[in-house]
Known about the structure:
2 domains, mainly alpha, Four Helix Bundle (Hemerythrin (Met), subunit A)
Amino acid sequence: MEMLVFVLASAMVLAGAIGVVTRSNPVHAALSLVLTLFGIAVHFVALEAHFLAAVQVIVYAGAIVVLFLFVIMLLGVDKAEDLSIEPFPIQRPLAGVVGIGLAGLVIAAIVRGRDTLQEAAEPLDAAGDANVKQLARNLFENHVFAFELTSVLLIVAVASTVLLTRRSKKPGDAE
């Protein structure tokens, strides 16, 4: 039974991920992302991590995807823009500087947190909130790089959504 749940949830995740990449309509791509996030929630339930499954559905499948859809609708996917015109000429060099600075901060966090990552995990407390403490310890000590990388990926996803919704003008299109 566990194998069947794993295979079906993995199929959901893969189908949704492929849909995110291949859909030309940004709204359909965002809805494919919902399928991927629900598949991950099913994996959490199968691993008996019910809190994480609930957070996955409420925060990511709910709030984040609604934010993506809001950005898509706000930008107006029916409007075409000329991508060859730069509204702010300093935008690209500034983005490069910010990217290099962000990479430097991530590297500094890795170097500084390297000692923490090598320490053995403390045993769980007998208190009722031991799972939350262990989860926080895993996220912010043992897996801080993956957690920060996830936040960067979410920012890239929002920026990519903005870029995908902008279409280049074709000759003869009316504004």
